[in-house]
Amino acid sequence: MYSILTNREREVYELLIRNHSTREIARLLGISDKTVRNHISNVMLKLGVKGRAQAVVELLRLEELDLEQDD
Known about the structure:
Elements: H1 7-16, H2 22-29, H3 33-47, H4 52-61
């Protein structure tokens, strides 16, 4: 199945829906805060939505993300 998300975008949003801050996501992935914000913005542009929350809702609707916890 084709995904609209890159692997890194998926990692960022999976951490975002688990209530991690931008700074925490950056630290966990070993990237800068700015890069995290860029990934979030890129996904919002792809989806044509105006905020992180709308992006999450749309990604869940498209089954690009799953709320099930792996841990």
